[in-house]
Amino acid sequence: MKWGELLEIVGDEPVFETGLLLSGPVDPADVRRQLSRWTAPGRLYQLRRGLYTLAPPYQKVKSHPFLVANRMVRGSYVSLQSALAYHSLIPEYVAVTTSVATARPGRWETPLGTYAFRHIKADLLYGYRLVHLGGGQRTFVASPEKALLDLVYLQPEGDAPPYLRELRLQNLERLGLEELARLAERAHSPKLQRATAHIAEMAQAETLEYETL
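Above: the chain's sequence. Below: its structure in token form.
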């Protein structure tokens, strides 16, 4: 395979897997050798084994971090601080794209950024949706309510009021308290139910504060 052939095949792809190049009469070993040769001088970025993206200036489509995260670990969805920031529920910029999955925890440092994955049980793998990111890119992202509950679930003492206050939650009117309670009940977790009660109190206090301004 030549460089021009690769560009014709993957030029419009934000990221691509080796399997995309192995259809037809090609030698898989030769394809992998070529990918390694192109990665060494920086024409390609290897994100993990078998997953690549074109490097500038060859890259036509800039990869959204959330799309990369979904492709890094199949069956994952963006959650925790990354999803909370995406939904404008916390004020901080989040440098690491965080996701959850039933796979083992992991962390990848890549030329496109840092990606962290936390493990959750299979029966907690719900509460996410397919989000359109623009440019034809789509990815799975936790709802605001599920992102918050995932964080509480994975954080030791995450249901404690001091921790919840440390999050500096904002725009709580965007949070569906009934949905939050429904998701917490579905998890059959007293910890999440306690957190839900505290968050409802915080939302009520925020509403009263705005009304007195």
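The two ends are 66 Å apart (CA to CA).
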